[in-house]
Amino acid sequence: MIKIPPASFHVTPCGEVDAAALEKLRNSFDTSQLLGLVDRLDTSLAELGGMIAIRDELLKLHTMAQALVEGTLPPVTTEESSVWEVAESVLLDLETLSSWVRTAQMMIAPLVDLVPEHRVNELSDREGN
């Protein structure tokens, strides 16, 4: 009699997943952490004034840097702050977002680990060709 090993993957409503990784996930993953990520993103963006505010600060920094590097005149006077103050503010904002991104990556990684072995092989074969 031929012994057939059990399937190393499960077919779920969310696609095929690695059986061992799914068992590990079920024993250790708190799905509410993903909602927590959304809340922390909302809080971080609110503290920073939203993505539009960050974009505006980057544009302001560009204008100031362009005036310094290329000798152009900024369209608006920037007497309220110096270029290094604006740059420091943007860096702090980006660090806040980077911290959130690193946390999100760590929390989401176990879901990526659900890829079944046969799919890993398929992806490797595609990348090799």
TrEMBL record:
InterPro entries: TnpC_reg-like (IPR049837). It comes from the Bacteria. NCBIfam families: TnpC_regulator. This is Transposase. It comes from Pseudomonas abyssi. The lineage of its organism: Bacteria, Pseudomonadati, Pseudomonadota, Gammaproteobacteria, Pseudomonadales.
